Amino acid sequence: MTVLDTPAWRPRADAAPLLPDQEPYRLLGTPAAAELDPGLLRALYGQLVRGRRYNRQATALTKQGRLAVYPSSTGQEACEIAAALALGPRDWLFPSYRDTLAVVARGVDPVEALTLLRGDWHTGYDPRVHRVAPLSTPLSTQLPHAVGLAHAARLSGDAVAALAMVGDGGTSEGDFHEALNFAAVWHAPVVFLVQNNGFAISVPLAKQTAAPTFAHKAVGYGMPGRLVDGNDAPAVHRVLTDAMNRARDGGGPTLVEAVTYRIDAHTNADDATRYRDDDEVAAWRAHDPIELLEREMTARGLLDDDGRQRAADEAETLAADLRERMHADPALDPMELFAHVYAEQTPQLREQAAQLRAELAAEAEADRAQVAEPRS
Ligand SMILES: Cc1ncc(C[n+]2csc(CCOP(=O)(O)OP(=O)(O)O)c2C)c(N)n1
Ligand SMILES: [Mg+2]
Asked: Is 262 exposed, middle or buried (0-12, 13-18, 19+ CB in 10 A)?
């Protein structure tokens, strides 16, 4: 007798429908692109161009000391923008530190979206206003949060879905496993978007996983896996929109892998030339998300030189506003360090707060004395 003869045993699900396609799903450059809504293409294009300019401006702000760090998503704009546009008004976004563009495309103020990266301890925006969780620096911790929110929404009969974004490196975290397992067991309305950009800082894909694709990991949890060309904005938008609709309609979670590439270094503090070849970067530049979309729109008569210039001008306006507002010094109260740590402060914290308050008062007194008696 083998386990197969045991009446109690049977597979819980047919694995075949959960398997991703062999090739990443594409729309641009295929006959199906002719059916794409011009309004959607225009919206994606404008946001992609503005997003790239935002990345460039934010990186420049790190060099001017206005931002502590900036993880650029240049090359990955199609994933960022398509993710934001695939959300319904009541859905929630759970971003990682690289997903500022998705956060801004969702409607968060471009300056407020940078608060955390500026070094402030605040999130910078009220997560409830646009339904955007804080940008998560600890890898994958946003995933169980997304599952919890989605599960709670389902329990209360609220047709809300959550979209959680994570990198290829983040899939090796325990939180990734726990989130996907709970999501599938609870049938939670959540979509996981893995942006496979080839690297986790200097760790290449080959050292990250031996799985055929990240999308295949879905099968082990009992949810469908979808594979998409992450530089094809309408394709990412289609795949995520379908998955979010499915989640909202009670169909359960989906794992989407978007195959893309990080054109810039990991952050301004990283030198990518130390671990990857220029040839590889050049090959991905030839598969640029903005150029792919431009080609399609130009061929369909939806974009000409004027349209390109208009998009570039709008991007410049955004960058100028970002520059101007980021150059204004924020008014910070050092005493806020002690707020919101505990509902009731510990004796040690009270002592430290008193010490800082005394130091600040002494500094202010010294400043006043200096003003009263200016040095000759
Ligand atoms: C829990 C945790 N461990 C380690 C780190 C340090 N760390 C920051 S980014 C990063 C690489 C993540 O790579 P990936 O998930 O592929 O995202 P990408 O940066 O490529 O967008 C690591 C290891 C961290 N932030 N959090
Ligand atoms: Mg990565």
From this structure: buried
Distance CA 225, CA 216 (A): 6
Percentage of the chain with pLDDT > 90? 88
Q: How would DSSP label each residue in 123-177?
A: -SS-HHHHTBPPPB-STTTHHHHHHHHHHHHHHTT----EEEEEETGGGGSHHHH
Tell me the three state secondary structure of residue 210.
Answer: coil
- Cα–Cα distances (Å) from 14 to 181, 220, 371, in that order, read 17, 11, 78
Q: Which ligand is nearest to the CA of 96?
A: 1
Mutation to probe ligand 1, out of 139, 168, 176 (largest number of atoms < 8 A from CB) = 139
Tell me the C-alpha distance between 182 and 174, whole Å: 12
DSSP string, 231-278: T-HHHHHHHHHHHHHHHHTT---EEEEEE----S-SSTT--GGGTS-H
Prediction pTM value: 0.93
Mean residue pLDDT across the chain: 95
For 256-293, how does the pLDDT look when each residue is reduced to its tens digit (9 = 90+)?
999 999 999 999 999 999 999 999 999 999 999 999 99
d(CA 285, CA 263): 8
* C-alpha distances in Å from residue 279, one per residue of 28, 204, 276: 24, 15, 9
As a whole number of angstroms, the distance between CA 224 and CA 13 comes to 11
Instruction: For helices 38-63 and 77-85, give the axis angle rounded to 10 degrees.
Output: 120
| Phi, psi of 87, rounded to the nearest 5 degrees | -85, 140
Cα–Cα distance, 321 to 84 (Å, whole number):
22
Structure tokens given for 88: 């319904």
Question: Distance between CA atoms of 54 and 371, rounded to whole angstroms?
Answer: 41
Cβ–Cβ contacts within 10 Å for residue 21, how many?
Answer: 12
Residues with CB under 6 A from ligand 1: 98, 137-139, 167-170, 197, 199-201, 262, 266
| Identity of residue 152 | A
